[in-house]
Design a protein that fits this description.
The mean pLDDT is 92. By secondary structure, the protein is mainly alpha-helical. It is elongated. It is built from nine helices and no strands. Helix 1 packs across helix 3, helix 4 packs antiparallel against helix 9 and helix 8 runs antiparallel to helix 9.
């Protein structure tokens, strides 16, 4: 295996810094100077790696999504290994305390959902792909005969509940919101199935 070059390592640091800032601050909160500073670099080196801020944002969304997806899949597999149904495992994994607090590392759809539709075409397209993948993941956890639209309704509830719970944060009310939503979704969609 070939080790990444110094340039590739630097590029990765910039993208990682932008991905964390993107989920933490939203699209408008990702400034080139701050991202470069967080990556331990000067502002002047930015254009050696990216043609534009939008190019950085495109890579940052992909990077953020890949990182959160890997973390999510690991937690999902652990929940499935405990004997939960696919939908229960998905709900427990998505609507959990760790995800509530993972604003820099969690799902890009829950972090950026309300902003995604207001972006320029390229950013909106890549955002749409992330939303569609989340809906597909929910659909895969449902029985094959699930009604059309059920996966979309559940995915929307998951994202919305997580966003609402993040308003409260780790306090008892935020955690209770996650638990109540998990229980309600399981009762509605996964009980005895």
């Amino acid at each position: 295996m070939v080790s990444p070059s110094k340039r590739e390592q630097t590029h990765e640091r910039i993208v990682d810094s932008a991905a964390r800032a993107l989920r933490r601050e939203g699209f408008a909160g990702v400034g080139v100077a701050e991202v470069m500073k967080q990556a331990g670099l000067t502002h002047g080196g930015f254009y050696a790696h990216f043609d534009s801020r939008e190019a950085l944002l495109l890579e940052a969304i992909q990077h953020a999504d890949a990182r959160s997806d890997a973390m999510f899949r690991g937690r999902l597999e652990a929940a499935l290994a405990r004997g939960l149904s696919p939908l229960q495992a998905l709900l427990e994994t998505y609507l959990c305390e760790e995800h509530l607090l993972a604003t820099e590392h969690g799902c890009v759809v829950s972090a950026l959902g309300s902003e995604m539709g207001r972006q320029k075409d390229a950013l909106r397209d890549i955002s749409r792909q992330r939303v569609e993948r989340l809906v597909r993941r929910v659909a895969q956890a449902l029985p094959p005969d699930a009604p059309p639209g059920q996966a979309l309704a559940i995915a929307g509830a998951m994202v919305g509940v997580l966003q609402l719970a993040r308003v409260h944060g780790r306090d008892a009310e935020g955690l209770a919101m996650l638990e109540q939503a998990r229980n309600a979704l399981v009762a509605q969609y996964a009980a005895d199935k």
